[in-house]
Design a protein that fits this description.
The chain has 446 residues and is of the alpha/beta class. It is built from 17 helices and 20 strands. α1 runs parallel beside α7 and α6 packs across α11. It is globular and about 65 Å long. Its EC number is 6.3.2.9.
Amino acid sequence: MHKGRLAILGGGESGIGAAVLGKNKGYEVFVSDFGHVQEKYKNVLIQNEIEWEEGGHSEARLLTAALCVKSPGIPDSAPIVVRMRESEIPVISEIEFGSWFTPAKLIAITGSNGKTTTAMLTHHLLKEGGLDVGLAGNIGDSFALQVVREPREYYVLEVSSFQLDGIQDFHPHISVITNITPDHLDRYENRMEYYTRSKLRIFENQTETDHFIYDLDDPVLAREIRPESMRPQAWPLSLEKPLEKGGMLNKNQIEIRTDTKLLKMNTDSLALEGLHNVKNTMAAATVAQLLGIRKETIRQSVANFQGAPHRLEKVLKIQHVQYINDSKATNVNATYYALESMKNPTVWIVGGVDKGNDYRSLLPLVREKVKAIICLGVDNTPIMEAFGNVVDLMVETYGMTEAVKIAYKIAKRGDTVLLSPACASFDLFENYEDRGDQFKAAVKSL
């Protein structure tokens, strides 16, 4: 490995993890954050005697690095990244860096929606099946930090397109793409094909002994994936088509065929609700089956799984009204799944930073299920324009407490109040977790 100077751009979860791993492996590490480094991360840097700066980049110093690990939040177009590449300094992501220092088998999961739930469920199945397995990437501790502190035989990694943009040799044993729908297009020059290309990099280093699982019902994947020309073995999933191998739905039975094994599960037994979660469960169960987990263990584990926080999370029932926190729905497609799984008249809280959303796909569901819309954002114009003629009642709010109080007044016995913003949270909140936590706190104080 080329030791020497390691520059780390971004002092967040992934940057700090990479810094600790780099220091442990003998690099001379320097962390540089254009903004502010949180107190908890500063403490880790101080404890590990790692040099750092915040509030700007010391360009001359950074350009002496032999290698740069970049936070997924920093775009490739950032001036410092451009200069480092011009100086022929390799700029990689933390999942790439982490993968250099572990012999573990990696299960990498990406997709526009469903990747967190699928990653959590996969980790749950493998752990219940007795494997020594960690969960990292976009969830919890960074991968690099776990490689140093909690070496495992397997890691389930939730990876974003931004993390995949920075890979070179990253080689998962099993890769999964849940779906590809427009998201983060602002980072890809508003070109869907660039975003798609990033996601498809997940299997570029896989070989014949590896596996790739994908959603055949997803139009982009159905068009892009040619199983016969791929190196890894491809396992498609479908709710619509009968398949000779992979995962399919037969009436209310999930059937998963891998080589000589057939696993059957009744959809009624799944802990997670909604058709999209049938697909997420298929993906996780296919991974488990490929890794030799017993069928009975898989069946029991999908039945007792607790879902991801902020993803269709039931908060409370107050006066026969169910409040649901789906703050993690930061794009239209995620909100589509949420609305699709609503069984009762719904008061829908929506809005935030709109990434050029096209709301048209939601119109039929809104007509059918939504009785009132509460806008929650600094600029609610796009939502007002999209749904103004579709629902009878529309209210603009600028804070979570106010939005929840209004929802409480509007909702009648048997209704559901759903926070599913379809937008990023950065206009009024720190992140989607903060938004979801504020929603839960506001509901609990009604």
